[in-house]
Each structure stands twice: as C-alpha cells, then as structure tokens.
Design a protein that fits this description.
The protein is α/β, with parallel strands linked by helices and about 425 residues long. The chain contains 17 helices and eleven strands. It is globular, with a radius of gyration of 23 Å.
C-alpha cells in the first residue's frame, strides 16, 4: 500500500532539493520486504540514487539497510548479499542472527543458588505471608533478557562496514546516517550518528537498535543499556525532516492483518486470528501498535513539516504473505523480497496519476517502461556481467584511496558533491 502525503505549504528553495529515507524495523522478515521494495523504487524512479540521498534514518532491521545504503551498498548489492547469496562484497550468515544466548543463560543460572537460599530464608521467617506474587517477581529475574545472542551479528556487521572501502564510523560517511535506539532505563529515543553519539561504531549502534526485548539482550554502550528503537516510535521520519528533507521516502513492513478484507478478496485465511493461538494474537497486537504510531506520526508531520512531501510504503492490510510468514524465516527471504518487489511495482502503477506530479516537484520521474514490464523479477534484476563487477570493485578502491588522502576539510562531515537534480 502506497501512502502519499503531499506538502500543504510549499516553499521556494534556493538550494537543491533534499531527499531522505526512513526505514522501520520488522525483524528479518521486515528487512527482506524492505529490500524488495527498495529495489523496485530504485528501478522505477528516474533521477534518484538511493546511495546518495541527503539523510538516512534506520530503526532495527531498517538500520542495517539504511547503513548499507549510506555506505554505498546499493539495493542490488544488498539483495545479492541477503537474498541471492552471490555477492562479492559480503557473505550472509543467517546462523549469526539466531544463535542462542548461551552466555546470558549461564550468567542467569549462576545466580540460582543464592536466590533460592534467599527465598527459603524469607519463607522461614514469614511462613504464612502471601508468597506467590513475590516469588514470581523474585524468580522472574532468572529469565534471560534475550533468547538470541547479538554478538555474532555485530561481528559480521563490523566486517562488512570495515572492508571494501566502506566505513564503520558515522563521522566519515558522506551522507548523514541516524540509527535510532531507546534507552532501557529511561525509554528515551537516542539518535546514534548525531554529535553526541557519533563516536559509537555503526555496527554497535545497529545491534542496539535491533535489540528487541525478549529476543535479543539489551546492548550496553558507555554504561547505558539500549533496546529496539521501535519501542519509542515506528518510523522516526521526523529525524529526516529535522535534517531538512523536502521529500521523505518511508518503508514500514509490519501492518495489522485484516482477515475480513482478505476473505472478501478471495484469499484463503482463517475466519479469525484466534485460531493461530498466542503467536498470532501477539503479532497482530504488535503490528497494530506500530501502525497506530505511524498514522499518528503522519498527522504530526502534516502539521509540523507542512513544506515536505512524504511517500510511505507498507504491505496491504489483506497481505497474508506478510502476516503468516515467520518473522525469523530466513528460508522465506527470496519469496518475501520478490513479493515486496512486485507489490511495490503494482502500487506505483496504480497510483501513477497522483505520484508523478509529487515526484516531479523534486526532479524525479516514473519510468513507465519499467513499470509496464510484467516480465521483470527481483532476481532477474540482479544479473550482471563481469565488467560490471570489476567496475564496482574499482570504484570501491578509488573511494578508499580518496578517503585516505590528506584533506584540509573537517573530517567529521565531508563536503557533499554537487547534486544534479534541479532545485524547484
């Protein structure tokens, strides 16, 4: 589903237009949807370079994708890494994302004897006092804070961003990147990449942003623990708007499922999500909360950033593929990414009349010949020849040499190259 929110108070600009990208979370499933949608946008919109936008904002799995783009890994290359498995830039290791947090289990288990002795002492001193609620609270602290270990994810990310001419340092990127996490002990949102948190490695910031409570343990950075940035807001598009973006492209892969609409459209779905048990109920609840905040945010943006246009991509409410696929199913990544690729192309075709003039205000066009080509597939768009691969490796090497040369400019934020899009 394509949501367009046009500016209501356009301003005359004496500068090139600024385009930002805000990518929400959604676990591995959401990340694959986002890659498919981005690949479709990359092919279908003329005049845009997803690796040369003016600001990137990412939350959870979206932070990984935003960081990749800011590091000049385009949508095709990231699809090769995570979906095709034939990238020369990095080797995707799905097992790194679902390794049990063994150290966390052992650390919690080590505290069992002392806690048991304390409980027995309390029982001996007050044998007739109500104990059930206190007992549950006491022994609840023995549960691990996360099922999976995120240390392997951080190592893999660090290897990717510290090779191939890329950077694991916010301060050396050519474009601003913000990775959003939430402080565990205050609930406040933190923008890794801003002046206060720019020294934190990008890889560390991503695992902090993706530390969904219950699945991954909180991440400690300089004595503060951080968890998934989606706990505060869903999209954090306001970060891109605060940075001066005139157009923000947002992607939110998780929306609540409308079973009645799905059945009305001929989809084979259960009469009620209750038949899916606790996982289905929790998934629907979580998705509803996320989308509610997206809608609330859009209303706020229309009021506080009336000069900006917003283009938001989400799955349709009757999209059973996105709801009933396991959020951690790496085996489904090709199917989900292809599904998102085709759904996004269909959305762009369907909303062409409204979308074309909005894009034109920012010097962008819709490539009708691409949208009209029903034979296009995501995997088919990734094919390339040896010459293209060699050119990509050469460009990475030249970029690395260029960054290593002495410069009189401040290194914290290198000057941006002139843009080719005309200001309007």
């Amino acid at each position: 589903m394509l949501v367009l929110q046009a500016a209501t108070a356009r301003k005359k600009r004496a500068r090139p237009v600024r385009i930002g990208l805000a990518v929400a979370g959604g676990g591995p499933l959401g990340g694959m949807y986002e890659l498919g949608a981005l690949r479709a946008l990359d092919e279908a919109i003329g005049g845009i370079d997803m690796t040369a936008l003016d600001v990137y904002v990412g939350v959870s799995s979206g932070a990984l994708i935003a960081a990749g783009l800011a590091n000049r890994l385009d949508s095709a290359e990231m699809c090769r890494i995570f979906i095709g498995g034939d990238s020369h830039e990095a080797r995707f290791q799905p097992e790194s994302f679902v390794r049990p947090a063994v150290y966390e289990y052992l650390r919690r288990a080590a505290s069992v004897p002392g806690m048991l002795l304390g409980w027995l002492g309390d029982m001996a001193r007050n044998p007739f006092a109500p104990q059930l609620s206190n007992t549950l609270l006491r022994f609840g602290s023995l549960l691990p804070t996360g099922l999976f270990d995120n240390a392997g994810i951080e190592r893999w990310l660090r290897e990717v961003f510290e090779s191939g001419g890329r950077s694991n340092d916010f301060r050396t990127l050519e474009r601003p990147l913000y990775v959003i996490a939430a402080e565990l002990d205050s609930g406040k949102a933190v923008r890794f990449g801003d002046a206060r948190h720019a020294a934190v490695p990008i890889s560390r910031a991503i695992v902090a942003s993706a530390a969904l409570p219950g699945l991954y343990p909180p991440v400690e950075i300089d004595g503060t623990f951080y968890v998934d940035g989606a706990l505060q807001r869903t999209l954090h598009a306001s970060v891109a708007l605060d940075a001066g973006a005139d157009l923000v492209i947002g992607i939110n892969p998780l929306v609540p499922f409308d079973s009645a609409s799905a059945r009305a459209n001929g989809r084979d779905t259960p009469a009620s999500l209750i038949h899916g048990g606790l996982p289905a109920v929790l998934s629907q609840t979580f998705r509803t909360l996320l989308q509610s905040r997206v809608r609330s945010g859009l209303s706020k943006y229309a009021r506080d950033y009336a000069h900006a246009d917003i283009l938001l991509l989400e799955p349709d409410a009757d999209d059973a593929e996105m709801f009933f696929t396991n959020v951690f199913s790496f085996a489904s990544r090709k199917r989900v990414a292809e599904h998102a690729y085709q759904a996004t192309r269909a959305d762009l075709r369907r909303r062409h009349v409204e979308l074309a003039p909005l894009l034109a205000r920012h010097g962008l066009t819709l490539r009708d010949e691409v949208l009209a080509d029903d034979s296009r597939t995501l995997l088919g768009s990734l094919r390339r020849g040896a010459a293209t691969r060699a050119a990509a490796r050469l460009q990475h090497a030249l970029d690395a040499i260029d960054r290593g040369l002495p410069t009189s400019r401040p290194r914290a934020r290198p000057a941006r190259p002139a843009r080719t899009r005309a200001a309007r």
